[in-house]
Amino acid sequence: MTRLYDSRKRILVTGGAGFLGSHLIDRLLEQGHEVLCADNLFTGTKRNIDHLHNHPRFEFLRHDVTFPLYVEVDEIYNLACPASPIHYQHDPVQTTKTSVHGAINMLGLAKRLRCKVFQASTSEVYGDPHVHPQPETYWGNVNPVGLRSCYDEGKRCAETLFFDYHRQHGLQIKVARIFNTYGPRMHHADGRVVSNFVVQALRGAPITIYGEGRQTRSFCYVDDLVEGFIRLMESDDNVTGPVNLGNPGEFTIRELAEQVIAQTGSRSELVFGELPQDDPKQRRPDIGQAKAKLGWEPQVPLEEGLARTITYFRDLLPELEVA
Ligand SMILES: NC(=O)c1ccc[n+]([C@@H]2O[C@H](COP(=O)([O-])OP(=O)(O)OC[C@H]3O[C@@H](n4cnc5c(N)ncnc54)[C@H](O)[C@@H]3O)[C@@H](O)[C@H]2O)c1
Predict the structure, then answer these.
(1) CATH number of 10-322
(2) In this structure, how many other beta carbons lie within 10 angstroms of the beta carbon of residue 322?
(3) Which atom of ligand 1 lies at the shortest distance from residue 21's CA?
(4) What are φ and ψ of residue 187, in 5° steps?
(5) 3-state DSSP assignment of residue 253
(6) Any residues with Cβ below 6 Å from ligand 1, and which?
(7) Which phi and psi (to 5°) does residue 271 adopt?
(8) N or C: the chain end with fewer CB closer than 10 Å?
(9) Phi-psi category of 39—alpha, beta or left, where left has phi over 0 and alpha has psi -120 to 50?
(10) Rounded to 10 degrees, what is the CA torsion of 186, 157, 217, 268?
(11) How far apart are the CA of 12 and the centre of ligand 1, in A?
(12) To test the ligand 1 pocket, which listed residue (13, 14, 19) has its Cβ within 8 A of the most ligand atoms?
């Protein structure tokens, strides 16, 4: 699956100490590139990049993307942003600043360097969708003044900025709309459904389902997603996105919980809580564009991805309990 670039590049990954960023960096290093990881470690952790400590082509810079960054690179992946409601609602003003000022700073840098810039956007730009599954042409149904708006509207504004820099300054942009992704190095306590269920099951704690668990989600394994990122970055100049990247397989939250219980062999019970505000009822990507333009579609089935994720958390939990 790994494909080599024509030549070595120096690549900036913002948010590189996070879940997705650290996997992307592994892949870029594997391809022979140099990587500069810029992260303020708000939700990311050094543990995710510990294994790269002595890597000769890896560099870490503690930096907040809401401030300008002056570095020399050939490509930029902009991933910096807290991604789970618990984290992005912790300091909502900072969340919007991270998306909007972060985008302005990275676009400014790309403009100065005349280099390609990738934006990690999100399926949250579709809000609670009236169209199902969601194609890129759907404009979304987003509450502009709710608790999730700092994230949803921040990401929407970032997309606007990317497309205006493209139209106004001829910048080469690559915008990915990422749907629920899971895998090793997810934060163990950020409330995202896969990590939540796996950790609860491994601890033998009750598994908390919001509502009746009939809301549906699609789950993409991280290796598949990273392959999509790289294909999008390498795609023809006329491909700007937004391109949906996610797994179109749709599961109810209850089905996911049952699968996790089965695969961990846990005795956890299911308990039901109240649905959070603006929680989308269904979410599934239409990946027609990614298939046609990038030749991309997910390869890893849920069962296999879950098994790898469970192994990761099994190893991690004793460490957390000691810390
Ligand atoms: N994981 C998913 O399912 C998913 C879905 C849709 C979109 N995304 C997007 O992908 C990107 C990465 O998500 P993730 O799941 O890896 O989340 P994550 O929280 O693990 O990683 C985000 C990283 O950004 C860093 N960060 C946050 N604010 C920053 C700032 N102001 N300056 C510098 N660094 C900052 C964090 O410390 C962290 O390392 C995010 O932009 C997120 O919105 C993720």
Answers:
(1) 3.40.50.720
(2) 6
(3) 16
(4) -65, 135
(5) helix
(6) 14-15, 17-21, 39-44, 64-66, 79-83, 98, 102, 120, 122, 178, 180-181, 187
(7) -125, 150
(8) C
(9) beta
(10) 40
(11) 15
(12) 19
Are residues 296 and 227 in contact, defined by beta-carbon separation less than 8 angstroms? yes
For 243-288, write each residue's pLDDT tens digit: 999 999 999 999 999 999 999 999 999 999 888 766 767 778 999 9
Query: Each residue of 35-82: pLDDT tens digit?
Result: 999 999 999 999 999 999 999 999 999 999 999 999 999 999 999 999
Given the residues 126, 151, 182, 221, select the one marked as catalytic. 151
Residue with tokens 């491994």: 202
- CA dihedral (126, 130, 134, 140) in degrees, to 10, reads -30
Which amino acid would we find at residue 255? E
Longest dimension (CA), the chain: 57
